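Justification of resources, computational component.

The compute hours requested in this renewal are based largely on the per-chain cost of generating structure records like the one below. Each record pairs the submitted sequence with a full C-alpha cell output. That output is archived, and it is also reused by downstream analysis tasks.
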Amino acid sequence: MDKYIIMNKNIPLVKTTMSAAGYITEVLQIYNPEAFPVGIFTDDFNKLADKLNQWWRSRIIPASRDGIALYPAFV
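The structure output for this chain reads:
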C-alpha cells in the first residue's frame, strides 16, 4: 500500500496508507489536527481513518461525472 499525505491547501494534515481502490487503510502520523475539516479529527487513529474515509468518499469526483473520460487519470 502506498503512503500519502492529505493536505488542507498547503497544510499537511495526516500521513496515511491507501488501498489500490482509494480507501484510507491506516493513519500513520497526524501533523496539524487544528486544520482538519470540522467534525473529522479524533485522537483515535482507527476512528480517524474511518472518519477520513467518509469525508474522502464525499469529496472525490465520481466516475459517472459527465466529461470525466476526457481525463484518463480519473478513470
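The first helix runs from residue 45 to 59. The CA atoms of residues 62 and 68 lie 8 Å apart.
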